[in-house]
Amino acid sequence: MTEQPVSLIIIDMQQGMKGSAARPRNNPDAENNIQQLLMAWRGADWPIVHVRHISRSPDSPFWPGQPGAAFQPELAPADNEHIVEKNVPDAFILSGLERWLHVRGIGRVVLVGVSTNNSVEATARTAGNLGFATLVVSDATFAFDKNDYTGVPRSADEVHAMSLANLDKEYATVMCTKDVLKQFKLQAG
Asked: What region holds the Isochorismatase-like domain (predicted)?
């Protein structure tokens, strides 16, 4: 056990992300790794936060009431797990997440979900800046192909790797699922 509570924060694992499959992505096993971590956290009775993106654009699959806004069933929150809704990439902005963590004495967070270079990176930067000991799970996050600023096509692996490089040792520590389970002495789900 750790001396301080550790919260697992699952970012944007919604049905609409499955619809993003038209764009090439990396880490095809990310959902399985997230599920392993979720089961391990549940088994340890540790705090879990599910973040859901709710779009401000009516034509978005993440608009309230659209099927895309729903959580993926295999990663859906249990009744006792906290849900945070956000309208921007960063899960801390106007969501009450920081206060929820502080009220419970949680100073360490483990981030998983999608996409690495957007909501995961934005949330990790803020978590680190707010003083949370932040860990990003490299194989439980994923990114999509994207053109860089100069128009050069970058693969999902390149986008993912650069995003993790932006975070590691600056805002967060980056580890894989197996090492996270080992560090916290958890059993895989």
From this structure: 8-178
Per domain, the residue ranges of the chain are: 6-183
Domain 6-183 belongs in CATH node 3.50.30.10: no
Helical H segments across the chain, by residue range: 15-18, 30-44, 97-103, 121-129, 156-167, 177-183
Q: What is the rounded CA–CA span in Å between residue 3 and residue 149?
A: 43
CB crowding 116-126: b at 16 or more within 10 Å, else e: bbbbbbbbbbb
Assessment of whether the complete model's pTM goes beyond 0.85? yes
For 99-154, the pLDDT digits (tens) are 999 999 999 999 999 999 999 999 999 999 999 999 999 999 999 999 999 999 99
Q: Tell me how far apart the alpha carbons of residues 101 and 99 are, in angstroms, rounded to a whole number.
A: 5
